[in-house]
Automatic annotation (TrEMBL):
One of its GO terms (molecular function) is carboxy-lyase activity. GO terms for biological process: secondary metabolic process. It comes from Micromonospora polyrhachis. One of its GO terms (cellular component) is cytoplasm. Residues 10-315 form the Amidohydrolase-related domain. Keywords: Lyase. Pfam families: Amidohydro_2. This is Amidohydrolase-related domain-containing protein. InterPro entries: ACMSD (IPR032465), Amidohydro-rel (IPR006680), Metal_Hydrolase (IPR032466).
Amino acid sequence: MTADHGLDVVDFHLHFQIGVDETIRAGEHAAGMHPGDEHDRAVRAAAVAPYAKRWRRDWGFPDPAPAAPRWQDEADRWIGELDANGIRQAVFVTAGGNDRMAQLVARHPDRFLGFAHHDPFAPDAAGELERAVTELGLRGWKLFAPLLRGPLDDPTLDPVWATAQRLGVPVLVHVGHYGSAGGLSSSPYDSPHHLARVARRFPELPFVVPHFGVQHVQELLFSAWGCPNIHIDTSGSNQWVRWMPYRLTLTDLFQRCYETIGPERIIFGSDSSWFPRGYVRPYLDEQLRICRELRIPDADLRAIFSGNAERLLRLTG
């Protein structure tokens, strides 16, 4: 339980910092971002200066530091963060590939859970998902829709969706703006409507959309209305609300999701990722404060902050 909140927490959304993630980098290249080249560095620098630095200042976050030279040391540092913040278990959704993710989980199997993360359009993507779950022990699959080579509802992907449904693992699908300041603002392949068409074809496969769907919040809510297997995770600063053409707050998002899709499809995540910031306790504190101000009952709080993750990840008998 968290030291001062008295609440059991399973965090559904963290990233393990491990240098270059080749799967993500390949997707960024495919999306036209060209990470690492001089032009991309200039674009990101121009955006980071006015926005990212201001955002870190507003939250009191230090500048990011490089990952530890040994990934084992980085992993052990995360255990200290989980202990200090009372987080029972953490789900890492990226960690530099499926094999490295399996190594990360194996180092602290009682506290860490991991997701596969590979290109669904790659040859034998279904076979790789099968290996990741049945041999490596991973518990789900993470995709960035804006970085894909085609839409989620492309019929050629049906074998991977069928495999995920048979294995009973959730699929976490990022839609909307990718990469924060200096990132990718839009993509032809990241609409919740694409996801809804897949969710209808595979009704027993749980999909989870992080960050409340970013700028696609309206389309996501309508997709979730039509597809009871679509869930929403709450992770991140959710600073994207500032860029919407109408006033929108985190309180509004929680209230609308709670009133429409209900507490059984809302899943807490922090989006913690880098040091020296470490575990982003302010995000947990703010989200829990909002839920309590909305007078969400304790039973529903338990579902949002741990129970739904336990159910989707099959952590309970």
